[in-house]
Design a protein that fits this description.
The chain is an all-beta fold. It contains no helices and nine strands. It is globular and about 55 Å long.
Length: about 170
């Protein structure tokens, strides 16, 4: 990673439970140290957020063994470059852009009851130390191309999609 300022292990990726049909749907970066104001410690009829686990048992293209570890999030700031974009299905950047890092596109599983955003996960992704346990919550799966409206070729049915983060 070529970030000038990287707040590594800023927090944990959170989202709704994979089996819930309601509530929040986006993956968000929750800080390691939350601050509370007014609250009740009893479980209310409310929305819920859970930590996120990697689910890569059948194929793990990452440097580390991530399966069933909790997924941390990182905040990256590059002072000298004001524009950033994530390019799905590419592991490189257009001419004139700088590749900060590349990895894989991930999201919830296609047959779970909730819908999530697609997110970028660096190929050298980390995990929360000591977190390997099958506790579920929100889950991250690799994204594969499905032919039909998505043209094959150039896409390949079932192939995991890369992505790159580029700045200029």
């Amino acid at each position: 990673m070529t970030c000038l300022i990287s707040l590594t292990s800023f927090g944990i990726i959170g989202s709704g439970h994979y089996a819930h049909s309601g509530g929040g749907g986006k993956y968000i970066c929750l800080p390691n140290k939350p601050k509370y104001e007014k609250y009740s410690d009893s479980w209310e009829s409310a929305g819920a957020i859970y930590g996120t686990e990697y689910e890569v048992s059948s194929f793990n293209p990452f440097t580390n063994n991530l399966h069933e570890h909790d997924a941390p999030c990182t905040v990256c700031y590059v002072e000298s470059r004001g524009s950033e974009m994530m390019i799905p299905a590419r592991n490189d950047c257009p001419s004139g852009w700088t590749k900060e890092y590349h990895g894989y596109l991930m999201t919830a599983r296609h047959d779970h009851s909730s819908v999530r955003d697609f997110i970028f996960v660096d190929r050298e992704a980390e995990y929360v130390p000591g977190s390997q346990a099958n506790l579920d919550g929100a889950l991250l799966y690799l994204v594969q191309g499905g032919c039909g409206s998505l043209p094959c070729l150039p896409y390949v049915e079932g192939r995991e999609l890369t992505c790159a983060v580029c700045t200029k």
